[in-house]
């Protein structure tokens, strides 16, 4: 705790002091990046903004980080989507069904595998641009992604 406070205070001091930044140009960035590496803040280039659009048109703006799945984004942002992600990403429920805009769908790097296709077949309101959120991994070029949440979900485990 004491170490973290010391780093924060040192970083603040360096940021505020023009004389220190001008005299020791290497110190400022070095201390700043050390602060980030402690996990106190996400680097801006790792943040991916994602908007979930409910069937009634309500938009829920969230953010995740590169490498997160869309299921991670829902969980980490406490997005209230009833029943979403019931199997926690083990490809057994289809409750994480999301609908992409055609442009975004075509840019997704991975095509759905057989297991995902089998689960999608059980999803309600299936479209040509449907995917399972637990199988979509965020990359920086997805920043600004908008996905639609179907009005009903089907937990395939209940069948
Ligand atoms: S969370 Fe169950 S299939 Fe994605």
Automatic annotation (TrEMBL):
One of its GO terms (cellular component) is mitochondrion. GO terms for molecular function: 2 iron, 2 sulfur cluster binding; electron transfer activity; metal ion binding. It is found in: Mitochondrion. Pfam families: Fer2. Residues 48-153 form the 2Fe-2S ferredoxin-type domain. InterPro entries: 2Fe-2S_ferredoxin-like_sf, 2Fe-2S_ferredoxin-type, Adrenodoxin-like, Adrenodoxin_Fe-S_BS, Beta-grasp_dom_sf. Keywords: 2Fe-2S, Electron transport, Iron, Iron-sulfur, Lipid metabolism, Metal-binding, Mitochondrion, Steroid metabolism, Steroidogenesis, Transport. One of its GO terms (biological process) is P450-containing electron transport chain. Its cofactor is [2Fe-2S] cluster. Required for ecdysteroidogenesis in the prothoracic gland which is necessary for larval to pupal transition. Belongs to the adrenodoxin/putidaredoxin family. This is Blast:Adrenodoxin, mitochondrial. It comes from Drosophila guanche (Fruit fly).
């Amino acid at each position: 705790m004491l170490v973290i406070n010391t780093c924060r205070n040192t970083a603040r001091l360096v940021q505020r002091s023009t004389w220190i930044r001008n005299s020791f140009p290497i110190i400022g960035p070095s201390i700043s990046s050390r602060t980030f590496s402690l996990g106190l803040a996400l680097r801006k280039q790792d943040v991916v903004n994602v908007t979930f659009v409910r069937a009634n048109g309500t938009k829920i703006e969230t953010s995740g980080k590169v490498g997160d799945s869309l299921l991670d984004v829902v969980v980490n942002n406490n997005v209230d989507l009833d029943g979403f992600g019931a199997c926690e990403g083990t490809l057994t429920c289809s409750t994480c069904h999301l609908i992409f805009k055609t442009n975004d769908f075509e840019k997704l790097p991975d095509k759905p595998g057989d297991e995902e296709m089998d689960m999608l077949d059980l999803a309600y309101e299936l479209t040509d641009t449907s995917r399972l959120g637990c199988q979509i991994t965020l990359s920086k070029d997805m920043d600004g992604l908008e996905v639609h949440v179907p009005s009903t979900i089907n937990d395939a485990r209940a069948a």
